[in-house]
Amino acid sequence: xxxxxxxxxLTLFGTGVRAQSMIGPPVDFxxxxxxxxxxxxxxxxxxxxxxxxxxxxxxxxxxxxASRGNAxxxxxxxxxxxxxxxxxxxxxxxxxxxxxxFHQYYRQNFEGNPRLIVRQDGxxxxxxxxxxxxxxxxxxxxxxxxxxxxxxSVLAGRQNMTVEFVFTGSSxxxxxxDIAFYNGPPQTQPxxxxxxxxxxxYDFDVDSAQWAHVPNQLVIQFNGTATPQYQDSLRExxxxxxxxxxxxxxxxxxxxxxxxxxxxGGQQEEATGTTGILSNIIAAKSKTKVDGVDFNYLxxxxxxxxxxxxxxxxxxADLNGLQNATENPLRIAILDTGLDYQNPKIKPYxxxxxxxxxxxxxxxxxxxxxxxxxxxxxxxxxxxxxxNSHGTHVAGIIADSLNKYGGDSCVYEFIAYKxxxxxxxxxxxxxxxxxxxxxxxxVDIINDSWGFFGDPSIILANAIDxxxxxxxxxISAAGNDTIDxxxxxxxxxxxxxxxxITVGA
Length: 505
Description:
- This protein is α+β, with helices and mostly antiparallel strands.
- Helices cover 14% and strands 31% of the residues.
- Strands 1, 3, 4, 6, 9 and 11 form a six-stranded antiparallel sheet that branches.
- α6 packs parallel to α7.
- The radius of gyration is 25 Å and the shape is elongated.
């Protein structure tokens, strides 16, 4: 008889890094919208965050800023016209760091030139920051696009400073809302995660839902109608570099940083676009063959730094003492930091399957070469060894519980998917790959003792829906942070799916 076990999720801890806070009140253009701002050219305050007065607005959605309400609109620029929106003079003498953030919805026409200009006492510019530089003609940002710019070098410790939005050239519209200055970099939700990532040296951006993601990377899920030739052509069209793929190549990890050279009508040109701009456009232009597009978001389990370890491909000696897989076991996939498969408590339940220990991929039906006991998505090899301890700890809890309550009738095995690195950090690509892989590996239960806060990922939601078609249960952690998940959603715990069981410690 098959049983399942409810697992503990270890708590996060703070790192002592100062959290980001606002310098002065934010500007949302709703109450006293003109206070502190001056305008020249074609800048107006627009009701409801729309730009209906501009050409080709059509049925577009309003800017999706947190405050809703009004927004600043820099209308379609004309030849020889410069539009400027300028802050009143500000005092930053008490600040050691200054970041400038705003929400935008911008559509390029031909050769627009949007930028930020920083001045002191109205003098010549101290700094000019070009914006949306990689946006191709006729394309637009997402309605939720959030921009954060580090202006510490020119604002911190100074007074009588102004920041200007300046536009010359040709565009259809530039909507701006929720402008604010901050005394630190963008914060994740919760802030402890971003602090931990910075402490351990991870490079990341933060989206409008305060979810950390790898810069310049997108996760693309194709459906069964997408041929390899189509996938190649779509990458070329968006100037994307293929970093990795999984799940029989129907999930891909792209990098788009504007540096790739692509073919345009036989001419070699620089590719354009950024992940923030293109994630929704790729989905819109590829609806029939693309099931989902997301940033490559970061997720975490136990944030416990560990020294680097070299994890190489499995050798025959690494499998000494492991038994062969049994008939029809309860197969439990552990998506975590890996497993110490020689640990005496774990070893009896890590079984070698389908004779893959011969060094050849003898199953040929799961698109992974030589995967006798699982897969390491962090190092992209067949050795899912645990270099953090969290995955082994979780598996030990499962073993203790099933041995205590399941009795001799409960025959179970672990399959280890190492999705999280030595510091307990993973990416959407890795956890989605492992979830899809479970449908190919005869898994019965997936254990996810990890989570993230932010908007729900369509890629991971699709993966959970896919495993549901194979009657696979997903055990997801609610966390130990005493957070009300009705008010601050955590995933995958908060997916509305019949096959997800959410567990609190």
